[in-house]
Amino acid sequence: MTPRERADQSLTNSFDRYLQDKGKGRGGDGGNYRRNAGRELERFAEWAAGDRGDDDWTGIVPDDVDREPTFDDLDERVFREYARHLGGDRGLKQNTVQTYYRYISAWCGWCVNEGYLEAHYAQRASAMAPLPEDDGRKPGDQQAWTSEQRHALTRHVDERARDAIETYTTLPEDTDPLDKQRARYAALKAARDRALVFVLAYTAVRVGELLRDPNDPRRRGVRWEDLSLDDGSMDVYRKKQQWDAASLPDPVISPLRSYRKLMDPPTDRWPVFSTFDQRTLAGLVQDELAERGERSEAITERREEYARDLLLALDEDIRPPSITTDGARSILQRLSEAAEIDIDHPKHDYLAPHGGRRGMGEVLVRAFGYTVAARYLDNSEEMVRERYSHIEAGELGDVATEALEQID
């Protein structure tokens, strides 16, 4: 296809190829980038067609022409107008506007390389002029668990797990089988929640590296085979698109050992942080038993023998999926509320997963400096210095105060 023919194509014809290319290679951007970029490209296409924006906005195609927008219609004035639209009355924060525009700009650059466009119009100064200043922060990525919050949450989940496990393990021998199963299920859930909180609080592993991402099949959640509790390490699929070992510090080992002993997974391929969602497990158990040749009546009778489908799945080695990153947020919302933790944050009224990582980063930077913290956080030292610059600023402030006291 010649550049001329590509210029005549509609914008949407390029989206699938672009998004496919963005996910390829060792440094591919993964499912989340493709999903977010795809969403913004669709919004851009709707805006270009006149289906989004102010009431008097008719799109970038001349009024006397009846067709979809093509690459011939694009120039720097179009991107300037879109930048103005993003920063308009949608109520978006300034760094969110910048993020959305970057998705469109990246696509524009790809279109130049592929011959759809002659120039990278989106990166021209006049196109970007309406964009607000970027304050350098990522939206919602500023919460950090304080030492008090971390201790309060870990103490709460530890007490809940200890109580639930003790209740289960001290039941009389003549306890009704279903009651015993209910007690085991409650103990399993409390033990899973404890292990999850401790891992998020002390390992600084990204939640997307730990749990399942429905938009990225490579991120299926850590399995027991990925953990080495004796060595204190865990294999995770890193943000940089490769497997790597993460550290499991001492506070994490005991909760994981206790949880594994209680669960006794049929194989090491089971997820460490299994979903406990009843609807998901019910469908999984029924489908798997049906595939094994069980009749519908027999499956119903089998399920009635168990208080929860998770326990049947354990006995029959029907491997459930890991909880998702969204599932972890729901768990932490529930636990933060139950622990009555005082949280003062503009976006999150609970201890969000990324706050555990940032909180651990604060501890490491203060205790050992940026180089050690960068290795533990799996980040460059430059990025760690940038994200935790407030620590250095505070320390320099103390130095200045001491100097003033000595001189003045």
From TrEMBL:
DNA-binding recorded as keyword: yes
Any GO BP: DNA integration
Stretches assigned to the Core-binding (CB) domain: 6-112
Molecular function in Gene Ontology: DNA binding
Region (Disordered): 1-35
Basic and acidic residues compositional bias, start-end: 18-27
Domain of life of the native organism: Archaea
Keyword Metal-binding: no
Gene3D superfamilies named in the record: 1.10.150.130, Intergrase catalytic core
Keywords: DNA integration, DNA recombination, DNA-binding
PANTHER family linked: INTEGRASE_RECOMBINASE PROTEIN MJ0367-RELATED, PHAGE INTEGRASE-RELATED
Name of the protein described by the UniProt record: Phage integrase SAM-like domain-containing protein
Organism whose genome encodes this protein: Halosimplex aquaticum
